[in-house]
Amino acid sequence: MLFDITTEEYKAFTGSHLMGLLYENKSPYHITYNMYGKDRHCLEIEDGIDEAIEQQISDFFVDNASQ
Questions:
Q1: Contact present, 43 and 25 (Cβ < 8 Å)
Q2: What's the DSSP call for residue 44?
Q3: Quick one: which of 20, 5, 8 has its CA closest to 61?
Q4: How many Å apart are CA 63 and CA 60, to the nearest integer?
Q5: Which of 3, 4, 36, 53 is the S-S candidate for 43 at Cβ 3.0 to 4.6 Å?
Q6: At 50, phi and psi to the nearest 5?
Q7: Nearest CA-CA partner of 40 in 14, 4, 65, 67
């Protein structure tokens, strides 16, 4: 899963319960800073994570984008 996110979204994500879920499930992730321009980063979460967690992460970024 790839996400185009801002610094604020990344900070909110790392402070959320979702980081704990990724850690508990040993799900690797990687962030590439400024990949999409200044303050636009690429968050990549490797395939193979539980579908429920994947949906929660997608919902998290969709919800933040709509605010």
A1: no
A2: E
A3: 5
A4: 5
A5: 3
A6: -55, 135
A7: 4
Contact status, residue 6 vs residue 40, Cβ threshold 8 Å: yes
Q: Which amino acid makes up residue 39?
A: D
Report d(CA 56, CA 36) in Å as an integer: 24
d(CA 35, CA 20): 25
Residue pLDDT, tens place only, 22-52: 888 888 888 899 988 888 999 998 888 888 8
Long-range interactions of 13-20: CB distance < 8 A, separation 24+ = 13/43, 13/57, 13/60, 13/61, 16/60, 18/53, 18/56, 18/57, 18/60
Are residues 3 and 43 in contact, defined by beta-carbon separation less than 8 angstroms?
yes
pTM value surpassing 0.70: yes
